[in-house]
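Per your request, structure below.
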């Protein structure tokens, strides 16, 4: 029997160090680099984009570090464009947030998140902290892994949406891990078993990406669909593989499993 086990990102040591550093430096370094979400934005959760100099300083002691000169240039550009990152998300959120809830059959539980835009190569995540790495959307035109950078702001919206969607599927993933009788997924059984035997990180993204793709399709937003395909191809690995599976399998079957669980959980 296929069983999905909960994955825990090992960042406890970093979080502990971050806590100590933040107490001493956050006031001096941050200088209120937090852009308020649009007051006209009625959908929730509202995301508040902010630069994260504490994370960036800390990561220089980790494998995620980047060249200090590049970091300095990107920090200046990020501070100048922080309002653009915020407004681009707000503009897209008006439609993609409610559409995501509609296709998933569940509402977001939180009303807001602070989103750390970390310049160094942290792994983007939605929990336990919400981090998005903006480096691919900053800097001079360049080639990386065969792709033209910087990517468009549509790709930034897509990756931010991706991290937000983890909170919309986590209840389902947790229920399967705990063998909740209301939670079943023949599709996770299928792709977790032979001949596929997909990696855990692929499996936990399948229903998420089905929501993402279906939302853009329902909104007839080809720009976001294309940007999403490109950013996942750029990241490669498990992200690209999960997107490919959703393309082949189609979104409907994944969403039926998710909607069925959510309807039983109300």
């Amino acid at each position: 029997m296929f069983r999905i086990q909960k994955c825990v990102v090992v960042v406890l040591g970093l979080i502990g160090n971050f806590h100590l550093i933040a107490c001493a430096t956050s006031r001096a370094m941050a200088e209120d680099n937090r852009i308020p979400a649009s007051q006209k934005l009625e959908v929730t959760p509202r995301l508040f984009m902010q630069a994260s100099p504490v994370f960036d300083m800390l990561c220089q002691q980790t494998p995620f570090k980047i060249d200090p000169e590049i970091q300095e240039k990107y920090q200046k550009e990020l501070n100048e464009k922080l309002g653009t990152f915020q407004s681009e998300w707000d503009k897209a959120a008006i439609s993609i947030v409610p559409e995501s809830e509609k296709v998933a059959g569940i509402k977001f539980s939180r009303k807001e998140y602070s989103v750390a835009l970390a310049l160094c190569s942290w792994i983007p995540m939605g929990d336990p902290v919400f981090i998005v790495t903006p480096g691919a959307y900053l800097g001079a035109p360049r080639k990386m892994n065969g792709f033209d950078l910087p990517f468009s702001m549509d790709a930034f919206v897509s990756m931010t949406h991706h991290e937000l969607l983890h909170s919309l599927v986590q209840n389902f993933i947790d229920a399967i891990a705990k063998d909740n009788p209301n939670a079943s997924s023949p599709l996770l059984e299928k792709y977790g078993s032979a001949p596929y035997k997909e990696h855990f990180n692929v499996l936990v993204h399948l229903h998420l990406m089905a929501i993402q793709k279906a939302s853009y399709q329902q909104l007839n937003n080809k720009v976001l669909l294309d940007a999403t395909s490109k950013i996942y191809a750029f990241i490669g690995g498990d992200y690209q593989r999960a997107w490919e599976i959703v393309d082949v399998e189609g979104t409907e079957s994944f969403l039926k499993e998710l909607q069925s669980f959510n309807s039983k959980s109300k």
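Confidence is low (pLDDT under 50) at residues 5-32.

Regards,
D.
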